[in-house]
């Protein structure tokens, strides 16, 4: 009879391990993580049903392995497809991601009159590329479609206003 509980204990620990790996790669909002905890605790209960020694060893095993597994998950998760999608790109990445960080007011005023291209539709707010940088801009005078040339007409603090050029 004790062997049956041992098998259940090892099986539930195996299920917890498989679910933990799945949790790394699927965006479940922690639902599978809860199932990992339930499987691990159920495994400990099964080990205690087999014998007190097996139960204590399983608790000690979880106390040692859980922090290591958590640290491993934090190290690996940003490199998974889900992690890459949820973590913002680097500031050096001009082709994708968010617009460039806000420039100082003096630098922004120097952009007055500069021309560039609308990267997204400006309805009225969108992203433009001016002097090689992605900037958030406000369209004056209606919608400006992506790909159209734009000219900076005003700089008010952090707000850049543009009109369609030409």
Structure description:
With 166 residues, the protein is α+β, with helices and mostly antiparallel strands. It folds into two domains: 85 residues; 60 residues, OB fold (Dihydrolipoamide Acetyltransferase, E2P), CATH 2.40.50.140. It has five helices and five strands, in the order H-H-H-H-H-E-E-E-E-E. Strands 1-2-3-5-4 form a five-stranded mixed barrel. The longest helix is centred in the middle third of the chain and has 25 residues. About 4% of the residues have low confidence.
List the helices and strands and how they pair.
Elements lengths: L1 H24 L5 H20 L1 H25 L4 H6 L18 H5 L5 E4 L6 E6 L2 E7 L9 E8 L2 E6 L2
Parallel strand pairs: 3-5
Antiparallel strand pairs: 1-2, 1-4, 2-3, 4-5
Helix pairs in contact: 1-2, 2-3
Count of structural domains: 2
- Give the topology string: H per helix, E per strand: HHHHHEEEEE
Strand order of the largest sheet: 1-2-3-5-4
- Enumerate how many helices there are, as a single number: 5
Spans of at least 5 consecutive residues whose pLDDT stays below 50 are: 90-95
């Amino acid at each position: 009879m004790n062997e049956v509980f041992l098998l259940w204990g090892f099986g539930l620990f195996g299920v917890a391990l498989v679910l933990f790996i799945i949790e790394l790669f699927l965006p479940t909002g922690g639902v599978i993580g809860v199932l990992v905890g339930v499987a691990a605790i159920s495994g400990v209960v099964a080990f205690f049903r087999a014998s007190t020694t097996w139960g204590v060893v399983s608790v000690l095993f979880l106390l040692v392995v859980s922090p290591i597994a958590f640290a491993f998950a934090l190290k690996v998760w940003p490199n998974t497809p889900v992690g890459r999608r949820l973590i913002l790109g680097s500031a050096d990445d001009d082709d994708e991601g968010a617009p460039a960080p806000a420039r100082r007011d003096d630098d922004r005023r120097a952009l007055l009159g500069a021309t560039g291209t609308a990267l997204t539709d400006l309805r009225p707010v969108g992203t433009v590329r001016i002097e090689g940088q992605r900037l958030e801009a406000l369209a004056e005078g209606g919608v400006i479609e992506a790909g159209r040339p734009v000219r900076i007409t005003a700089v008010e603090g952090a707000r850049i206003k543009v009109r369609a050029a030409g």
